[in-house]
Specification:
Elements lengths: L7 H5 L3 E8 L2 H10 L6 E8 L17 E7 L5 H4 L2 H16 L21 E4 L3 E4 L2 E12 L5 E9 L24 H19 L5 H10 L7 E6 L2 E10 L5 E4 L5 E4 L3 E4 H5 L3
Parallel strand pairs: 1-2
Antiparallel strand pairs: 2-3, 3-7, 4-5, 5-6, 6-7, 8-9, 8-12, 9-10, 10-11
Helix pairs in contact: 4-5, 4-6
Length: 276
Amino acid sequence: MASFTLGGKARDAGYRLAGFDTIGSTNSEALAAAAAGDPGGIWFTALQQTAGRGRRGREWHSPHGNLAASLLIVPDGSPDTIATLGFVAGVALNAGLSAILPGGMVRIGIDGADGADGRSRIALKWPNDVLADGAKLAGILLETTKAADGRQAVIVGIGVNVVAAPQGVPYPATSLRTLGVERSAEDVFEALSDAWVDAFSLWNDGQGVGAVLARWRGAAAGIGAPVAISQDGVTRRGIFETIDSSGRLIIRDDDGARHPITAGDVHFGATASARS
């Protein structure tokens, strides 16, 4: 059975928790709570999801023992500002994993100089994934809905492959166990809940977006390297230059022109360099 607990910072900040062993979807549970009038500040967690989902309606496979966590909040800010909460979640995940994983596994410096071997390092992938050794370890999904009082509620959904990676997915995936790290989903969540408090405080109702994005860039995978962005059957290739002040990926093509990307599937390495 699940034994989730909030970290000390999260408890002190007034967050609440509803933990489950198995659930259909923690995001769906959070959406239902918003519709029922919950004021926000509550985490829904589970060791297994049977109907999880990711970006663009894709299934999110969650074997038992992995972490599914969704936070319901009702923040202030414009829709564009609220969209940057995905970067807040990425910063929180990076910090939470850093708190519980062996030294050298989590990327801290923008050039990755902190890593021992240049490979066994966790890094953030635009727009909403966490990679380990280039494979997906965790994902983030933001959903919005109207709260009972008419304000915009946000669900920050986070899934972490703790004991197993999903099979049959069209991308490399890994888990903490595969990386040789034996920590429980409850351990990961406790660290994440505290790291969220710090990252959300930095965001500061959108006034600290710049500081959040700077921290995200410092943990990012692929900046300065070839990248390919696929969207609606069209692929654009170039150099991943940076993330701009709105959180858009900036790609520089062979002619030196810079293109802002707001959405798409990102590919690094040989896939990014291949030409059709």
